[in-house]
Amino acid sequence: MAIVGDRPTADVAASPEQVLAMARERGVQIVDLRFTDLFGMWQHFSIPVTELSADLFTDGIGFDGSSIRGFQHIHESDMILIGDPSTAVADPLSRIPTMLLTCDVYDPVTRGRYTRDPRFIAQKAEEYVRKSGIATTVYFGPEAEFFVFDEVRYDQSAHQAFYMVDSSEGIWNSGRDEKPNLGYKPRHKEGYFPVPPSDSLQEFRSELVLKMQEAGIEVEVHHHEVATAGQCEVDMRFKSLTRMGDQMQLYKYLVKMLARAHFKTATFMPKPLFGDNGSGMHCHQSLWKDGVNLFYDPHGYAHLSQLARWYIGGLLQHSPALLAFVAPTTNSYRRLVPGFEAPVNLVYSKRNRSAAVRIPVYSSNPKAVRIEYRPPDPLANPYLAFAAMTMAGLDGIRNKIDPGEPMDVDLYELPPEEAARVKQVPGSLEEALAALEADHAFLLEGDVFTRDVIETWIETKRKKEVDYIRLRPHPSEFYLYYDA
Question: Active-site residue numbers?
Answer without folding.
Answer: 64, 143, 145, 225, 233, 282, 353, 372, 374
